[in-house]
Every structure is written in structure tokens, then in C-alpha cells.
Amino acid sequence: MSVRKTADGYHKVTWSSVKGADGYEVYRVCAIFKNGFVEKDLSAKFVTKKTSYVDKLKNKNAVFSAYTVRAYKTINGEKLFGNENYYTLYE
């Protein structure tokens, strides 16, 4: 798993495919801090069938701390998840 900055200043998260996965959930942990406290939580979840995701959040005051990706398979309408992959990024 890796995170790279695009030419536009966004973060592109990429990971290896998981055999048999129906898709992937990408979690962004991010916040804006003021005086040492979280002023605004910008964490979010994205769902994709691809093995990459471009996070289009652009906020000069945001502190990015981590991305997590986990594969899932849907069986009988329920998502079953595999192991998580973590990537920590500080800006």
C-alpha cells in the first residue's frame, strides 16, 4: 500500500488486489486541530472496486494522519472483511 501526492495536490492511495474481493473500503483519518484539540474531524470512508483511490480533500489546515484499506466480499447481502492495511502520512 502506498500514498502519493498527485500533480493536483491530492492524495492517491494504491494497494494490491485481493483475489475474490468484491471491493475495497478506504478510510481516511484526518482532522483540523486548534490549540492542540480537534476542531473539525474530516475522517471519511470511500468504497471502490478499483485498487486505487484519489482522495480529493484539499484543506491547507488539515492534518492527514492515516489511510486504511480493507477488502470485502459480499455473501448473502453481508460484507465480510479481510485484514486491514495501514499507511500513516503526516503533513
Describe the structure.
- This protein is mostly beta strands.
- Strands 3, 4, 5, 7 and 8 form a 5-stranded antiparallel β-sheet that branches.
- A hairpin with a 2-residue loop joins strand 3 and strand 4.
- The radius of gyration is 14 Å and the shape is globular.
- The mean pLDDT is 88.
Q: Any descriptors?
A:
91 residues; single chain; mainly beta; 3-stranded antiparallel beta sheet; globular
Q: What's this model, at a glance?
A:
The protein has no helices and 8 strands.
* Percentage of residues in strands: over 45%
Low-confidence stretches: none
> How would a textbook summarize the main sheet?
5 strands, antiparallel
Overall 3D form = globular
Average pLDDT reading: 88
How many individual helices?
0
- Report the strand count: 8
SSE pattern:
EEEEEEEE
Category from helices, strands and their pairing: mainly beta
- Helix fraction? under 10%
| Alpha-carbon distance between the two ends | 18 Å
Computed CA radius of gyration, to the nearest angstrom: 14 Å
What's the topology here?
Elements: E1 2-5, E2 11-14, E3 23-34, E4 37-41, E5 44-48, E6 52-55, E7 62-75, E8 78-88
Antiparallel strand pairs: 1-2, 2-6, 3-4, 3-5, 3-7, 7-8
